[in-house]
Amino acid sequence: MNWDDTAPPTTEDPATGAPDRLVGADADGEDTAVEAALRPKDLEEFVGQERVREQLDLVLRAARARGATADHVLLSGAPGLGKTTLSMIIAAEMGAPIRITSGPAIQHAGDLAAILSSLQEGEVLFLDEIHRMSRPAEEMLYMAMEDFRVDVIVGKGPGATAIPLELPPFTLVGATTRAGLLPPPLRDRFGFTAHMEFYAPAELQRVIHRSAGLLDVDIEPEGAAEIAGRSRGTPRIANRLLRRVRDYAQVKADGVITREIASQALGVYEVDARGLDRLDRAVLTALLKLFGGGPVGLSTLAVAVGEERETVEEVAEPFLVREGLLARTPRGRIATPAAWEHLGLVPPQQQAGAGGQQGLFGA
User: Where does DNA bind (predicted)?
Assistant: First the structure.
């Protein structure tokens, strides 16, 4: 299974300045602590990603049978789908310790050399957001992955010398949300690559029921289905919504999560039946009501909702596009017919045809 609480969606992440969102897939400190308790410990417990689980199981079983370290593994996919969880499962299945770091933390080749030189034989090194690692460190990683060796440069200029440093065999598990940014030489050095898909509602219901059991929450199947339907195909969001619905059920009801209680709770947290939150609806509302469905430029749309351009583009748009509510075109962003229907609005053309001439942006 898999993973991840934030304040209501009007607060901000202190690290990035982006708005915290109940349906955001990034985890904060509290999320990380809760995730540790909810994470499955082996592949059998892991819900969903059937093809990836089957393939990874073969890779790990074969490595154990040979008494060798597992091949390097690259996991790609959106945040919250279980990449970190799978890396921990790989270490557990191989009976090896795991070292966790991230691409942004490795800004110099020396940073990577220090980590690699301290690894034990068979240890799993989990490198999150591997596409954000610095280029010098990336080039050092090529040799480390292929030959289990790094060259440490001592001195500067013409007098600099390269001292070869042998490394014990280890398994690198790289995780990325943007596999296209990985250079081919790095991507080709992974023995197994897997893309994590979004979860179906039925799979999310299994995630929710398992998490509810671990959290000692009484939940009815209809309540789990209601939460799953608003979780954007992401286990971390499903677990986050479950905890917020649990709070509502404890304070406003008898503690049992029914469909009605789940619906009321998620209404309080501004997560609608399709999983859209305040920011998503603000973008759609501006696009429809102020600009008649578009096309409109990204910067103009961001000003209209009072957010930064990057926030609209990277936080709100991916889900809206995936849901078929918004489209990106060379002329700008446009709303689809499904967006008008979801917000219960009538496109300007239909308004004009039904009763009176309307302008491009409506009355």
Answer: 309, 328, 333
d(CA 58, CA 79): 25
Domain ranges (residues) in the chain: 49-195, 201-268, 279-354
Total residue count of the chain as it appears in this document: 363
Residues making up the binding site for DNA: 309, 328, 333
pLDDT-wise least confident of 135-139, 209-213, 256-260, 297-301: 135-139
For residues 284-298, give the mean pLDDT: 91
Of the residues 21, 83, 210, 246, which is catalytic?
83
Mark the binding-site residues for Mg(2+), compressed into ranges: 84
Whether domain 49-195 has CATH 3.40.50.300: the reply is yes
Annotated binding site: 38-39, 80, 83-85, 146-148, 189, 199, 236, 309, 328, 333
For residue 85 the two structure tokens come to 């969880």
Rounded CA-CA distance 9/6 in Å is 8
Q: What is the pLDDT of residue 121?
A: 92
User: Measuring CA to CA, how many Å separate 157 from each of 30, 110, 139?
Assistant: 47, 17, 19
In CATH, which of 1.10.8.60, 1.10.620.20, 3.90.950.10, 3.40.50.300 is domain 201-268? 1.10.8.60
Q: Is the pTM of this model over 0.70?
A: yes
For 279-354, give the CATH class: mainly alpha
Within this chain, domains 201-268 and 279-354 share the same CATH topology: no
Question: Which among 87, 1, 8 is positioned nearest to 37, based on CA atoms?
Answer: 1
- Cβ-based neighbour number of residue 356 at 10 Å: 8
Q: Is 311 a catalytic residue?
A: no
Q: What is the pLDDT of residues 150-179, one digit of tens each?
A: 877 766 666 667 677 888 999 999 999 988
Q: Is the predicted pLDDT of residue 354 greater than 80, yes or no?
A: no
326 and 298 in contact (C-beta within 8 Å)?
A: no
